[in-house]
Design goal:
64% of the residues lie in helices and 9% in strands. The protein is of the alpha+beta class. The protein has a five-stranded mixed sheet with strand order 1-2-3-5-4, with helices on one face.
Length: 402
């Protein structure tokens, strides 16, 4: 198995342009060298030299085309035998006719394209050595610069080419790492989005369906205990209304996850409507100058009111309850008060299959919009749920619909 690194694929159109310049340069230099040789030598010498030059051109063309494709064949890389034949023919040509020595630059770059590892150094060295011998021969074996010049140029080009290849490999590795990091970031964002959506749907279900079903269950249990007392009929009727509301909320969640009346109509009326699903005699008081509240803030206020009112009915056993909606210069506040039996906020159990999601869902709703939620309660002294959410400050405030 070969230990040579895999051949890099063409990175861009720049590679193709460089190859094209090298190939065109080879063709131009070959034609110029052939013309120079023909003009300076007899026809007897021209025949075999020109035939060898034509063979070199044919080998160069085949090798360049195969190396450009860069697809391994059945027996490995098909351009390698052609490249070996090209270097051998080129060495013979340049030694016989030093006029073709200038074409060695194109041959050198083609060898570096076709080979990797030590074969590339051998092929490049052979090209430089053949050129050095040819030029040294042309000087009648007297000019040492003709011998050392091509060897030094070959060594210099080899170092430069190796540096370019290392930089290109490093750039590809960095690009791969950036691509991998972007894919991981996208996957993390998708997972975060899925988690956030699950949390949102969980809050919606808790604040609508779960609370309503729990209240309906309490009413039906109360009706069962007092049946056939006439008061039981009222409990059943109220449970029926709550179940119908739950059905409507469930359909709304399925279709658009929005509450009826949220997008239109006065906010105080929507809050009172939501609270009275659970506490019939509750009222909403408004302080400050009413103004436009964004839909996401309206939605959070509605759900907090709905969840707090459900908790009052389920747990508080309160005689009185109220909701206060306040408009401040840069925020809106919501206070839900009841005079029930209260509780210790620090002793609230974690969420489980039996409940415990209400306060957590309310806090998440408010904090996701940049607001704050506080729970003030003491056993035997009632409860206050206080939420404050920021409002955008504009030059001209829009009044809330009366």
């Amino acid at each position: 198995m070969s230990s040579a690194p895999p051949r890099p694929e063409p990175d861009s159109r720049i590679d193709g342009r460089i190859d094209a310049v090298v190939h065109v340069g080879f063709a131009v230099l070959m034609v110029a060298s052939a013309v120079r040789y023909v003009m300076r030598h007899s026809p007897a010498d021209n025949l075999w030299t020109v035939a060898l030059a034509a063979g070199v051109c044919a080998l160069y063309t085949v090798t360049a085309v195969l190396a450009r494709q860069r697809h391994p064949g059945r027996n490995g890389q098909p351009w390698i035998p052609w490249m070996v034949a090209l270097v051998a023919a080129w060495a013979a040509l340049v030694i016989v006719a030093p006029s073709f020595a200038w074409c060695s630059f194109a041959i050198f770059f083609l060898t570096r394209t076709a080979f990797r590892g030590w074969p590339a150094y051998v092929a490049g060295g052979a090209t430089a050595a053949a050129t050095a011998v040819a030029l040294f021969r042309m000087s009648d074996w007297t000019d040492i610069a003709m011998l050392l010049g091509p060897l030094a140029a070959g060594a210099l080009l080899t170092l430069i080419y190796d540096k370019i290849e290392r930089d290109a490999a490093l750039q590809r590795r960095l690009l791969d790492r950036v691509t991998q990091a972007q894919e991981q970031l996208a996957a993390s964002e998708r997972e975060a989005g899925i988690t956030a959506e699950r949390e949102r749907v969980s809050r919606e279900i808790h604040d609508t369906v779960t609370q309503g079903l729990a209240s309906s269950l309490l009413l039906l249990e109360a009706a069962q205990r007092s049946w056939p007392d006439p008061a039981a009929h009222g409990e059943v009727s109220k449970a029926t209304r709550l179940l119908r509301r739950n059905l409507a909320d469930t359909r709304s969640l399925v279709h658009e996850l929005s509450a009826p009346g949220l997008e239109t109509g006065p906010l105080p009326d929507a809050l009172e409507h939501a609270a009275r699903q659970y506490v019939e005699n509750i009222h909403v008081q408004v302080t400050g100058d009413p103004r436009h509240v964004p839909a996401e803030v309206r939605h959070a206020l509605l759900r907090v009111t709905q969840s707090a009112a459900a908790n009052i009915e389920l747990h508080a056993r309160a005689a009185h309850a109220s909701v206060t909606l306040g408009y401040l210069p840069g925020s809106v506040t919501l206070d839900v008060f009841d005079d029930g039996r209260g509780f210790d906020p620090g002793a609230v159990p974690p969420p489980s299959e039996t409940g415990g999601y209400g306060l957590r869902a309310m806090r998440q709703r408010v904090e996701q919009l940049g607001g704050e939620l506080h729970v003030e309660s003491t056993p035997g002294e009632g409860t206050i749920i206080a939420a404050q959410l920021p409002l955008p400050v504009t030059g001209s405030e829009t009044k809330e619909a009366p």
